[in-house]
Design brief:
Layout (H helix, E strand, L loop, with lengths): L10 E5 L21 H14 L3 E4 L9 H8 L7 E7 L5 H14 L4 E6 L10 H19 L4 E4 L4 E4 L14 E3 L4 H10 L2 E4 L4 H19 L4 E10 L3 H11 L5 H9 L7 H11 L6 E3 L2 E2 L12 E4 L1 H13 L2 E7 L3 H11 L16
Parallel strand pairs: 1-2, 1-13, 2-3, 3-4, 4-7, 7-8, 8-9, 9-12, 9-13
Antiparallel strand pairs: 5-6, 10-11, 11-12
């Protein structure tokens, strides 16, 4: 069995906002906050200086600049932070993707991680079962290529016989795969192929139940174990009142039609995970809080992760530790605006957390 287990020191990551998801007021686009090299590189460099372990570089065909090109460039402008590059399975010729990823890892000095995306390729739609079968095959072959192994693979979506590219990662092995999904097909692929299973914000009990479910699935079906990551927003201020006021200000100019349009433009807008985020929002109290320090208002204008940890530094720290207590070993956090909230979290919470990158744990 794999030696994965919940780390004593979690990985703390930030969000690169490459997918046109940065606002002062949700639903009110600001050209200065649009996805661009200048804006997004400022966020990532800030997270690097602030001491975050990793940064998610999301991918969206219609939603901003290209994540792979950005990762190659920002690798030369950062020093310590890992780069969690989102890659959509099936979107690029697989051998070329392996060569690109190995090259970027070299440019970054071994700091690359890979966020596996299984949503539809732009302009194409597949049912869930075949789409996840494609993802499974791509993950298997991509790992082999990045491990430097020859390929003799004949599946439903991948049919390859070739040697690995000469370009190799710094370690000579595949970077860790982060992957999330909530349908039965997605969970099965994650249990078999992922290193870090990512879940979206939910109540502490529900997150713990997901960890328990995936732990059993990976062990019983594939004799494997996983590390678990939580993707969530955060709003931290010196007082709880100030944090709640910041949350209310964030949605103060949002109307329902605009929120619906933003949520529906994503390629995963109809997924099981998005449906759960909607259910969480429907179950919240009138103020948007579904349990202590967990506010669902951000999901009114965002597909995907739709809740924020809101409170003073003690409350935010306690919430993170509560999630860690049910098995979370990595956090991918964000906030609006992403650059300002990155500094606030780094000022008020990050120094109080023992944290470390997960990447060295995966080196074989």
């Amino acid at each position: 069995m794999s030696a994965m287990s919940t780390p004593e020191t979690p990985e703390i990551s930030w969000f690169g906002a490459l997918c046109d998801d940065d606002y002062e007021f949700l639903g009110q686009p600001d050209p200065g906050l649009a996805s661009s090299w200048g804006h997004c590189s400022d966020i990532v460099r800030g997270a690097d200086r602030n001491g975050f372990d990793n940064v998610l570089l999301p991918s969206g065909y219609t939603l901003g600049i290209d994540s792979t090109a950005f990762a190659a460039a920002i690798a030369t402008h950062t020093d310590q932070i890992n780069l969690l590059l989102a890659v959509r399975m099936g979107e690029m010729w697989l051998p070329q993707l392996a060569r690109q990823l190995a090259t970027i890892d070299r440019m970054a000095g071994g700091r690359l991680c890979i966020n596996i995306i299984s949503s539809d390729i732009p302009g194409e739609a597949l049912d869930s079962a075949p789409r996840y079968q494609r993802t499974r095959e791509w993950m298997q072959v991509l790992r082999q290529l990045l491990d430097g192994e020859p390929i003799d693979f004949h599946g439903d979506f991948v049919d390859l016989e070739l040697e690995p590219p000469r370009a190799r990662t710094v370690s000579g092995t595949c970077p860790p795969f982060y992957f999330g999904g909530f349908s039965p097909a997605a969970k099965d692929v994650a249990a078999a192929e992922a290193d870090v299973f990512l879940t979206w914000p939910d109540t502490v009990a529900a997150v713990g139940a997901t960890v328990d479910e995936m732990t059993a699935l990976a062990a019983d079906r594939y004799d494997r174990s996983l590390i678990y990551g939580l993707r969530a927003h955060v709003i931290v201020r010196e007082t709880e009142a100030d944090a709640r006021a910041a949350a209310e200000r964030l949605v103060s100019k949002l109307d329902a039609d605009t929120g619906d349009a933003i949520r529906n433009r994503s390629l995963d807008a109809a997924s099981v995970g998005v449906a759960r985020q909607s259910e969480l929002r429907e179950n919240a109290a009138d103020d948007g809080f579904v349990e202590e320090s967990l506010w669902t208002g951000v999901g009114r204008a965002r597909s995907g992760a739709g809740a924020a940890i809101v409170g003073d530094p003690d409350q935010v720290l306690a919430k993170l530790r509560a999630y860690q207590g049910v098995g979370i070993g990595a956090f991918i956090l964000s906030g609006y605006t992403h650059r300002a909230e990155c500094d606030l979290f780094a000022q008020h919470v990050l120094p109080r957390l023992d944290h470390a990158p997960l990447k060295p744990r995966f080196r074989r």
